[in-house]
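Progress against Task 2.4 (sequence-to-structure conversion) is shown through the following example record, which the project officer requested during the mid-term review.
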Amino acid sequence: MIYLLLILIIALFTGIYLRLSLTPLFKQHKQDRISKYIALVPKGFVTALILILLVSIFIFWADGLLQENERFPTSFSIAFNGILGPLVALVAAGLTFAAFWVQYEANQQQIKANKKQQDDIRVERFEYQFYEMLRFHRDNVMEMDIAGIQSRKAFMRMFYEFKYLYYSLEHSYYACREKLSENYGLENLTKLAYKSFFHGIGGASNNSIFSLMDTDDQKIFAHRRKILFRNQDKFEANGSELEVFKIKPYGQNEQHLLEVFYYPFDGHESRLGHYYRHLYQMVKYVLGFDEIDEDQKYSYLKMIRGQLSNFEQLLLYYNSFAYGKVWIDENLFSRWKMIKNISLELSDFGVNPKEMLLSANSNTVYDDNGTLKLRIDNSHVFEWEETSNSL
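Structure tokens generated for the chain above:
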């Protein structure tokens, strides 16, 4: 009973001491606590010994062993050694455990520090490669040249050429409508117009572009082809000087003008093919880097989008109907807003961008098992939507 009382008293005083000593440490940084733990080890050992000695004397006094007794020295020595020995061993074991625990904490901190350093190195490498790719993109834009029309101005001229082609083919679409399949709509027409713009309409004896078209496309294209050939001949007859083509969009009275500074409808595959491939690889490089969260990924993608002019984003949007469907399927337009800055006024033909992004396959994300993972809010995909909502 006496021994049990002794152990309880020692545990009580030791717990009070540790509580008072360690409480301030938990308010400090974890790295600072480790050094303080080590400093407390000798203090704790000395304090435990003192408590053992004092409590032992108290117990012997309470038990009458401190009364006058001839056997007191011997009794005290035997009793004291019997009590102190196991307790010293217990304290030593506890302090040994504390030392191992402190070392374990230090090792964990070192592991975390090493991992953070490795993560930082990977991020630095990512950023170096990212900015290199961004530089290559700027070089691609600067090297864009169409008969002396360079850089971003070339994208503006290409866009208006594509728009003219769409309006021209639209007339044939309505003229041949009864001969077309029932499900042939504006999305198909937009795809046909972009293919004609991207590859060119070919020469009078060149029918290679027909291999890229289905039966309905061929009917529309054959109906309009001769008119487009005449436009080409008109430009050559004018000595390859500035020529202006005029066309009224179907069902409208206002004419659409196309100022032609170069041989028209000859295709831009050699200019845009590499440009779009590199742009897509750059976006996928950012999204494939798992060391950064989604907010950080969006920040990097904003840098890419910041390099794209409004006309580049417009052509990117219409390119998705023919050869860039992956931009829609992978939600690069809706979720990551890569065409946020396109002009509503300039995208008023073909399929409306807002309607396209509200389609079922462009505002949802599924996992590998086909389970719905994320539903995307398309209410603020475009800059002009944010402007109108703020008014």
